[in-house]
Amino acid sequence: MPTIRVEMFEGRTEEQKRQYAKTLTEASVQVLGCSPQAVDVIFYDIKKSDWATGGKLHSDQ
User: Fold this and answer.
1) Predicted local distance difference test score (pLDDT) of residue 4
2) What's the CA gap between 6 and 56, in Å, rounded?
């Protein structure tokens, strides 16, 4: 059973997450041959102030 962890900046709508989960599930079924019920997608919404790249917070950019 694949569990897909999606980390992204907060602000996506529930509909965007719904569509993304559906697309990830469909791709998993096609590539891995599992059932849709076996695919878990977990969303982690992260504030820009809690994510840094290259030593700089994304909220500062």
Assistant:
1) 98
2) 21
* Residue 26 counted as domain residue: yes
**27 in a domain, yes or no?**
yes
**Residue of 2, 8, 20, 34 marked catalytic:** 2
Rounded to two decimals, the pTM is 0.89
Reported as a pLDDT band with limits 50, 70 and 90, residue 60 is very high
Report the CATH number that the domain containing residue 32 is assigned in CATH: 3.30.429.10
- Structural domain including 16 reads 3-47
List, for residues 10-31, the tens digit of each pLDDT value. 999 999 999 999 999 999 999 9
Q: Is 2 among the residues known to form the active site?
A: yes
The answer to whether residue 59 sits within a structural domain is no
Query: In DSSP terms, which residues pair with 3 in a beta bridge?
Result: 40
Helical H runs in the chain? 14-32
